[in-house]
């Protein structure tokens, strides 16, 4: 399945209300389902041998066909990434090899170097991007196994497996799959940590992490830019009850070598078992539904912030249209200000009544509006999704 060129399938059509990110994603997922059904079935290998390469457009397919590895472009982006997915879209991509070093164009190929056995991405735009960098020549092979783990094996000279050198499960991106660990290896200090995407259309490192603190190994913590936003209770606890009810079996392991959290699923779990930290700090399941902080909506990244303005009973709702004053206040202090940053800015500023992403297509850059500007419902070319302060019963403060 090729998961690029999704943009034309997405309804940029003005008559369709791009109400929420969840909804956009649902559409991305539906589009992909269609692509899947139309999908071709070439290249069914699950491994690369030394000297072999996977060109852009080819895929590795895990045994039983659950996971694929290949190049992809997120919607509304021009950058190419190598990833593992079970279906395309933000929630379906479970690992990205080059989240901070994307490739432009389709010249990329994933190669197991014949000289030293390391895994690298070759492309026409510059030096190869090393995924592994072991010293000394080795005989290796790399396999996408049935759990979605990309594993680099060292081989004996007769071709049999000598041992594991590296696995993608040790370098997670924003998704925890069954069998992965979240915690700390006490022997070498390696931390298994999830880090959010920057936006749903960019796998670059985002603001949120989910994992275990070195000094607080008996609980899980969500941090935003290093600042603690949410802490789980002690083990065992009921924080993940809604997952447990759906057949997720969580466990905590603690010994001299490692301390980690992991999970397995019962055979009868029909949804795809994932745990993802999203670009706005929620913990979601595979359907994009927030399993944590659900009482507070999608905003668990900010609820513990004492600096948040008290708005009484009013809350933010998603509307499609324009603000009467045109552009709002934009922020330039960093290149990667996202909707989530403006959400927090708005929550902290009592005169703020609305916030939105500046570019509706790729949800990058953002702005906020103060009291005095009105919301105008419209479906013109420059209309977009605006998060607007409203009062209960759907009555806007501004209308
Ligand atoms: C790699 O395998 C080849 C044969 O497949 C063998 O001749 C060579 O010695 C091996 N190299 C190492 C470092 O094991
Ligand atoms: C391959 O070589 C290793 C190490 O020399 C040995 O332990 C193993 O039994 C060999 N496997 C086969 C299939 O010959
Ligand atoms: C853990 O605690 C030690 C001693 O109190 C401190 O020096 C260190 O910075 C802490 N590490 C983290 C990650 O908080
Ligand atoms: C839950 O996980 C534990 C530890 O991995 C395992 O021993 C147990 O059998 C699992 N239970 C179920 C119902 O899958
Ligand atoms: C709140 O937002 C308004 C409009 O963007 C801005 O003028 C004002 O300085 C902000 N206040 C604070 C405390 O940041
Ligand atoms: C997002 O889209 C805008 C408008 O097309 C473009 O200027 C900007 O560079 C894009 N940003 C990213 C990160 O793709």
In summary, what is this structure?
Helix content is 8%, strand content 38%.
> How many beta-strand segments?
31
Q: Helicity, in percent?
A: under 10%
CATH superfamily heading of the largest domain:
Bulb-type lectin domain
Number of domains: 4
Quickly give the CATH architecture of the largest domain.
Answer: Orthogonal Prism
Counting DSSP H or I runs of 4 or more residues, the number of helices is 3
Q: Describe it for me?
A:
Residues 45-165 form the Bulb-type lectin domain. The structure is a single chain. This protein is mainly β and 399 residues long. The protein folds into 4 domains: 3-41; 42-171, Bulb-type lectin domain (Agglutinin, subunit A, Orthogonal Prism); 178-304, Orthogonal Prism (Agglutinin, subunit A), CATH 2.90.10; 315-390. It is 8% helix and 38% strand. It contains 3 helices and 31 strands. The strands form 7 sheets. Strands 25, 26, 27, 28, 29, 30 and 31 form a 7-stranded antiparallel β-sheet that branches. Strands 3, 4, 5, 6 and 7 form a 5-stranded antiparallel β-sheet that branches. A 4-stranded antiparallel β-sheet has the order 1-11-12-13, with no helix packed on it. β4 (68-72) and β5 form a beta hairpin. The longest helix is centred in the first third of the chain and has 18 residues, at 21-38. It is globular. It starts with 20 loop residues before the first helix and ends with a strand. Bound molecules: 2-acetamido-2-deoxy-beta-D-glucopyranose (6 copies). One 2-acetamido-2-deoxy-beta-D-glucopyranose (NAG) binds at residues 156, 158, 160.
């Amino acid at each position: 399945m090729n998961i690029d060129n999704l943009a034309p399938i997405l309804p940029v059509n003005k008559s369709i209300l791009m109400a929420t990110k969840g909804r956009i994603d649902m559409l991305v997922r539906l589009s992909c389902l269609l692509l899947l059904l139309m999908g071709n079935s070439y290249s069914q290998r699950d491994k690369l041998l030394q000297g072999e390469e996977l060109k852009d457009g080819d895929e590795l397919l895990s045994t039983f066909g659950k996971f694929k590895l290949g190049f992809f472009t997120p919607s509304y982006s021009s950058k190419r990434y190598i990833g593992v997915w079970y279906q395309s879209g933000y929630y379906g991509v479970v690992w990205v090899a080059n989240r901070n070093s994307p490739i432009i164009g389709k010249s990329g190929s994933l190669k197991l170097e014949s000289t030293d056995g390391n895994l690298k991405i070759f492309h026409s735009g510059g030096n190869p991007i090393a995924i592994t960098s072991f010293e000394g020549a080795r005989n290796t092979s790399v396999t996408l196994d049935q759990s979605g783990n990309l594993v680099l094996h060292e081989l004996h000279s007769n071709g049999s497996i000598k041992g594991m050198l590296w696995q993608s499960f040790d370098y997670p991106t924003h998704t925890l799959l069954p069998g992965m660990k979240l915690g700390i290896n006490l022997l070498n200090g390696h931390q298994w940590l999830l880090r959010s995407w920057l936006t749903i259309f960019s796998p670059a490192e985002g603001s949120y992490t989910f994992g275990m603190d070195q000094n607080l190994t008996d609980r899980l913590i969500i941090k935003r830019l290093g600042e603690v936003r949410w802490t789980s209770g002690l083990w065992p606890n009921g924080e993940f009850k809604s997952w447990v009810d759906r057949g997720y079996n969580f466990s905590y392991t603690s010994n001299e070598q490692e301390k980690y959290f992991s999970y397995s699923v019962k055979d009868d779990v029909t949804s795809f078992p994932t745990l993802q930290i999203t670009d706005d700090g929620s913990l979601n399941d595979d359907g994009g539904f927030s399993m944590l902080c659900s009482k507070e909506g999608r905003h668990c990244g900010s609820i513990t912030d004492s600096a948040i303005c008290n708005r009484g009973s009013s809350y933010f709702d998603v509307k499609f249209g324009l603000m009467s004053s045109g552009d709002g206040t934009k922020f330039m202090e960093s290149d990667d200000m996202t909707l989530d940053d403006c959400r927090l800015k708005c929550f902290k500023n009592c005169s703020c009544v609305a916030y939105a992403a500046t570019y509706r297509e790729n949800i990058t850059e953002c702005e906020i509006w103060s009291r005095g500007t009105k919301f105008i419902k419209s479906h013109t070319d420059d209309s977009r999704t605006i998060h607007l302060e409203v009062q209960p019963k759907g009555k806007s403060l501004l209308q």
